Amino acid sequence: MKTKKIKNSSIKSKREKASIKIQEVYDFLCQFAPPQLAESWDNIGLQVGNLDDEVNTILVSLDVTEEVLWEAVDHEAQVIITHHPLFFKPIQCLDDSQVSTRLARLASNMDITILSFHTNLDATQNGLNDLLAEQLKLKNCTPLLASQNSQKSKTGLGRVGQLSKKVTLQNLLENISSQLKIKNIRFAGSLFHEVKKVAVMTGSGAGFFNEALTAGADVLVTGDLKYHQALDAISQSISIIDIGHFAGEIGMVSLVTEKLKAWAKKQNHALQIFGTQVQSDPIQYWNSQASLPENFLEKFKVA
Ligand SMILES: [Zn+2]
Fold this sequence. Notes:
The protein is α/β, with parallel strands linked by helices.
């Protein structure tokens, strides 16, 4: 862990200037992404902190990491809003050797409250799946897995929609690459496969290719594709495009930041809202075509 010191005085001084309760921010986000839309295994909402505390600065991030916590301190933010919850399983002790509890203790020492909006944000209307469908220019979208806990027909995990015309998988990959600014995309299927109906699922949705198939989709765009899922999908003539978990969900930062800014302006709240600038995809790709330092191979030459 870094030895950076927490400046309690600066956190306290900011707190004195704070204007609204964290509860108000939480309630607003719950209207946008109702908690009942969350999956039963999920752990959304308050992760660390106190909804009764006051806030004037918020940082939005996909995850809590140590870098993100220090970024919040730099902004003098009292709240971090994340997509992924810090905890999924019940905690029995605050053990610093465990990442989530260590981060929770650090957040607590920094006087930072952490709120998570996860599968409820994925499922809600105009939430993360709708954003991905929009980025792919899909029309007439319906949920891939309609929510059982909502009267609204447009809520649920994943979306299925139509491209404006039939394209090859290669064309779709090119479009996704330019729309989402992704250099490396994994896929299962043929580049010549003609696709028009597209299913999307933010996060790890490759296991839902059967549902995508049932919905009539030619291709499923998601993250975290596994080998056997790829084999099974190909055998059933549906392609899968793996854009990566991070690339599929990082849109959450601008989505929530913009929502909060618009709300704060409308309500006349003097809130400052920042999107993280320090979080990047933890998964990287090494490319054998990338230039190696001169004499790199010489060093490893077997005599
Ligand atoms: Zn995720």
